[in-house]
Amino acid sequence: MFTGAMVALITPFQDGEIDFETLDEIIEFQLNNGIDGIVPVGTTGESPTLSHEEHKEIIERVVKTVNGQVPVIAGAGSNSTAEAIELTAFAKKIGADATLQVGPYYNKPTQEGFYQHFKAIAEEVDLPVVLYNIPGRCGAGMTPDTIARLSELENIVAIKEATGSLDQASEIAILCDITIISGDDSLTLPLASVGGKGVISVAANIVPADVKAMTDLILENDLISARQWHNKLFNLCKNMLTLATNPIPIKAAMAMLNMASEELRLPMMPLEENKRAILKQTLKDYGLLN
Length: 290
What we know:
Blueprint: E1 4-8, E2 13-14, E3 17-18, H1 20-32, E4 37-39, H2 52-66, E5 73-75, H3 81-93, E6 98-102, H4 111-124, E7 129-133, H5 135-138, H6 144-151, E8 156-161, H7 166-175, E9 179-182, H8 188-192, E10 198-201, H9 208-219, H10 223-242, H11 248-256, H12 273-286
Parallel strand pairs: 1-4, 1-10, 5-6, 6-7, 7-8, 8-9
Antiparallel strand pairs: 2-3
Helix pairs in contact: 1-2, 3-4, 4-6, 6-7, 9-10, 10-12, 11-12
């Protein structure tokens, strides 16, 4: 169920408030382009700067607008286990299909702490859980052994791997049969070679049909044809994550394409002027701008 091309949705802002009208338009764009799943209020959705009320409002709006057409995997993670359970319970209540659970950040838990945190969420709320392993953002990450232990819990169905390590993904695939999803656009195809089944994609905010074309081929085990899409997408995907911290570049790109405002919330700042020319040229090279 949680495979293929899934978009890590931005949160559009206008004058400091959530721009729900634009959010609806972005969701319709995704659905019209065949996206396989929608993931609101994750890292790309600037969840750390949303109030709890805003967080819940966005999940509810996305679920309502999607209206069952594709799975909605609601970001509901926290470095507080009780808070993650609360957000997950809300996601279930309003009809989300699953929840994305980032590793507890700043706390730097032990491996047993990771296990007990996610176990508590999975057992408290009967909703599928996609684990999110991104030590670069969190300060600590899960080992393959911990992920394998967690995969034995009924509600834990997938792992969004954003460690950048194919060795890590290989070990996970050897130890258990949890669904492995790429958390890095540029590694979607390499990860597929060791068992990955898709991506939660930043680039899909602007090129969902192309990301889906690649993941469809991956799911058909046609990695040679998928490589053509990988090569086309590579520079675009790489620049979305290397020009500045996500979601700064993707929001700048969406503004250039008249899809959404570039507005971010502090401490995130707009893309620096000297990097705008690189981003603009990247969009031109891809064929998105004249």
